[in-house]
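User: My collaborator sent over this chain with a note saying "see what the structure looks like." That's all I know about it. Can you take a look?
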Amino acid sequence: MKMVQSSDSDKQSLEHAHPGRYYRALPDGRLECEVCPRLCRLQDGQRGLCFVRARRGSEIVLTTYGRSSGFCVDPIEKKPLNHFLPGSPILSFGTAGCNLTCKFCQNWDISKSREMERLADAASPERIARAAVESGSRSVAYTYNDPVIFLEYAVDVAKACRERGIKNVAVTAGYIGDAARREFFAHMDAANIDLKAFTDRFYEKICGGKLGAVLDTLKYVKHETSCWFELTTLLIPGENDSPDEIDRMTNWVVKELGPDVPMHFTGFHPDYKMLDYPSTPSSTLTRARDIARANGVRYAYTGNVHDEDGGTTYCHSCHAALIVRDWYVIRDYRLTDDGRCASCGVRCAGTFAGPAESHGRKRVPLRLLGSP
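Assistant: Without extra context I'll predict from the sequence alone. Here is the result:
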């Protein structure tokens, strides 16, 4: 794998970088980064494929610690999470860079950026936790680019948030090494994890990764942690949307993760390096949802389209509508305070804390001014 040699401006950023974790020295003098399965092997001054983790002398450092590409308060359903504090506001932020090379990336200007200048907002973990409280957010989302690559920053923010009673949410592709995985998810209360496809071909050709590493993450989070998580698959016409692939994927989810893990099938629109592909027909999303439900997935959703039925949470026992959504607006809510169906009393899987909040679909940009 070709590594990136730092320029003069990059070298200046290395001087102020934060010490990283999860790397080892190799016999040939290189350092191997073990944060993700890429295992980038770096000479002094080189950066990994993610571009934000780099070698500085005898250590690997994180060059984006304390710097963000921006802050917004979003509805939590936008992550998407439909079973974690419904209707609540969530403070969202990311940094720059990514450890996958997805050709369809819809945040490519952030995740593929090598321009550190785009990180305009600086904030300490304590400042972010305070901003969450001040904005009325119930949780903080590590999103826009994958938080795996800014693990040290995300973990420190998560610790500061928990001290103030704020929950932590990761939006991630789950492409993470074994040891880093244990630390990262120990500090997350919920996650939306991309299961981008169910073939090695797609991950290798379209994303530059390996499916098996993501499946290992899913099994780990389900069976070894208390982190609530939901899955998202962006369906791309002709690439990962065949009924056979959806059938195999959803059968695997029920067998290995159980029927209670929500699945979101979302629509692709042409972007980044896949501008010549058509948008996903809504019928493809509905078909995927139907296959998932037929295979035993209790909570299957459609996304990126206006589909009230596909956005509604139904009781898996009596089939009553529990949470009726119109885009990100909750129109009706029929769960008890402890998350049970108001009609039959069967519990709905997820994290619920009383009646749904009403943040709605509004997105509020924030600038974290004042003391760091």
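A starting point for your reply to your collaborator: The chain has a mean pLDDT of 92.
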